[in-house]
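Methods: example folding runs. The two proteins below were folded one after another, and each record is reproduced exactly as written to the output file, sequence line first and structure-token line second.
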Amino acid sequence: MIKKIKNLDDFRKVKESAVRSMRARQMNETRVIVGMGACGIAAGARGVMAAILDEVSLHDLYDVSVLQTGCMGKCKDEPLVEIIRPGEPRLTYKNVKPADVPSIVEEHLTGWRK
């Protein structure tokens, strides 16, 4: 949905949102990777990706990259989400739904820093 910009404050809000989204797509050591191959997209990966970007932005996690990849090879388990943190084994979540994202982010991206 495209928002109509009516004034300078609206423009600043749109710009801030775009900057946050771009920062989330940069390469950092901590990464969230969403399988966005045909099977992933058919299984709802776009909604999962949007939810992850929203959560990362909500918690100001500028040091976390949110990336997409093609087929991850496990079609029956899509959407697949991988969490990569420095010095730790790669974690893979399967059959992820947008409603699962807040708890995944809390457990692996915000909660582990406390």
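Second run, written to the same file directly after the first:
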Amino acid sequence: MWKRKLASRKFWALLIALVTSVLTATGAGENEVLHITGIIGAVGSCVAYMLAEGLADGGGNKDE
């Protein structure tokens, strides 16, 4: 179940929204919020890609 969640774009969008809201509420500047949001988005994209490729590769081996 966790692999599915980590590969979900909706999960990463939720995480970015949550972190952005918390940073804004704690008084972080726009620059810090932008940098952290960019990092989370980049990491989320990489994780989703790796999990999707792993699932595709795993499913391909069963057919052979």
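Comment on the second run: The mean pLDDT is 83.
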